[in-house]
# Entry
Amino acid sequence: MYRVMGAPAVVWYLLFLAAPLIVLLVVSLGRRSPNGGYQPGLTLEQYGQLGTRWTAFANTVELGLVGTVVCLMVAYPMAYVLATRGGRYKTILLALVVVPFWTSLLIRTYAWVFLLGNSGIPALLRDLGIAEGVRLLNTPFAVVLGIVYNYLPLMILPIFVSLDRIDQGIRQASKDLGAGPARTFLRITLPLSAPGIISGVLLVFVPVLGEYLIPVLLGGGQIYFLGNALADLFFQSRNWPFGAAVATAFIALVMVLIGFYRKAASRLAPGTEQEGML
Amino acid sequence: MIQIMTKRSGVRLVAAMAGSVLFLAACAPGTDEAVGGEGGDAEDAELGDKLTLATWPNYHDPAIIEAFTEETGVNVDVNVYGSTEEMEALLRGGSSGIDILMPTHYAVPGWIEDGLVQKIDYSKLGDVDLSTWNELFVDQPFDPGNVYTIPKNWGTTGIIYAPEAEDPVTSWKEFFERASGDLTGHSVIVDHQISSIGSAAVALGYDLNTTDPDELAEIEQLLVGLKPDLWAITSDVQPPLRNGDSWSSIAWTGDGVQVQRDNPDYEYVIPDDGGELWVDNWTIAADAPNAAAAHAFLEFVLRPENSAADTEFCLFPHANPAVQELLSPEVGENPVIYPEQAAIARMTLSSAEAYNSEARAEMWARIKSSS
# Structure
């Protein structure tokens, strides 16, 4: 019975996970044909050039980390207020967090192009006499803003869930035993919400690493993520084998990073493995 | 949003999404079977009932496509892409089910060499006579004798400048000098190595299509140094122009027409020192499921009155003078759409070598990832 029930899942994994990965690996061992595309081969030379995409990789990890940390700093207080002060509006407030997701990512990001462009917020700052000649669009700042804006709900929701689960009685007990609000937060609330933080960070950081759209629209092509390098390799350069090699190396690297992260996370917050990680 | 989907536009969303599907498409056996005679259309059974087109956004007058369906019973499925590269990825993936593609000329030699396209059977096209067409676009090295391709519309890579630029920007030399000078922070180059590296090459006095390592090194130095001074590297050039962020921008004919139509203060210029000329071409895929209908469609759209309707719609110039005669004055006599022949004769068709050059592609990646 279990075997029959599991069949769709097995087929799913084979078709949509294993097969594409195998194709990727095979292509990465080939050569670019002179007119572009893929020529079968069995060589590691594509992997030898990985260094040429180091800057794109470093940009991605750096801005991805900054974006994730800012996301966490914005999301935690929001989730905290939702969970502890939401009262009977909790469900509505929570739904409002998700509402922006109903509009396409492209449209929401495109809207920022106009807000951050010179006739948007910089014009407002100028007219109010606050600052002159501010440039916001096509800067690392704009890319981080785009990341925080687009991925915020993915951070808020898991943190909210873990905060919401904390028994109010525990916090009350902490206070009864003489701990102040700060101590209660640091010793009780924060550790108990760690599983949410850990999931939230993963949920944001991993997709951000594959981000393509935000650097294009808000970075103005000036900020080059690995996703952009990949798109260029498959289209402008038509160098499929090298593109496949970059993608394979990247997948391997992300898996290693996640492995380390989980290990570190389970040491910091024991029991998180079971607490509904990815 | 319209701008996002304009021809050759940079936001390669389709690309990003198609990319993930590509691998699946590549490993799955093709399910499209050739549409044979059993399409069962009353009027012209041997044409089948479906024709699939891979082309640019807003490139065909829908009325013409409808008229073709009415005349032949063949339904036309129009798929749009933001770049020749996307069409090529589709074609190279195999079993795309596409009959007709619309590559820009520089991709054509590689497609012919790799057997991706088929010869056009001129006997099925009625009285098409390419010898009367603008000589800059027919019988060119990318397809001598037009054996595999027939030009649809052509265009230029020029400069749009805004009134804020004050003095006109009239040459590539001036464009790149002023981008680091009085127009710092307000210039845009397109995210397309052929046009951007090529125009920089022209600015330095080199050939648009150079692949010479020393010349490329000098161009790279210029562009890497320029990058911090640019507003953006994007092929979606219209939003920053309309927004007042970009004052001087590399742009293609279509952008020039659209921006100037809405803001007559903006100018689109063909640079004095030349630059890139390009032409999109009707091609039939080697594995076209329905080559018969593809030929019938070419015969239909190449009738001057139909090409004229298409040209009025897409606002790119057509190489057939008989078509130009049928255009309204607003289009046929618009200097942005139809610049003087002397001006375009200074320009160069971008080459397949430049398009296929790994050196240029890698250099472009270095420029884009530099800071």
